[in-house]
Amino acid sequence: GAVVSQHPSRVICKSGTSVKIECRSLDFQATTMFWYRQFPKQSLMLMATSNEGSKATYEQGVEKDKFLINHASLTLSTLTVTSAHPEDSSFYICSARESGTNIFDFFGQGTRLTVV
Amino acid sequence: QQQVKQSPQSLIVQKGGISIINCAYENTAFDYFPWYQQFPGKGPALLIAIRPDVSEKKEGRFTISFNKSAKQFSLHIMDSQPGDSATYFCAARGFQKLVFGTGTRLLVSP
Question: What is the rounded CA–CA span in Å between residue A104 and residue A97?
Fold first, then answer.
């Protein structure tokens, strides 16, 4: 089945530093990948849509300079949280849309970011 | 309207019972309706999905019922098991983006 690998699964960083999260589609190509944020006991909120080879499209209210997204290949997208602060602590999840059918979205296992 | 309303917020079902979760939407441009299962600390996993031209889809113990005129769809889990205890999200896709419901925490008691 389609597998999306997200790394790291957990990260703790100091306030003011940057953290990079990787999202890889292991057995399929993904022209489009998505980044979500999820607070405890809440739903998933879309942060941005990442298209291979082009700039990401950010949802309203998401700071593009704080959450840098790169989608350099059909199997890899990265999210960099720059100058992280405690309020950025959250569960970040990526998903990859299978290019062939362009229908199914498969999710990574998520990254728990804690900023101290 | 890009919202998807989901109910109930939480659900307790006895082992072997039927779990039913409902969702409603407004935007008729939505063209794909998946359901996801999420365990604590994990990403969502695709369970089953349906297109609006189909009224019902069954995969194993999971069934989606879709009512296009009412703009409602539901997930039925037959013979619910303790291992089904998780949070379930309905979603709807429009303009290439998924909009998620608020989630239902299901607890299946032994």
Answer: 6
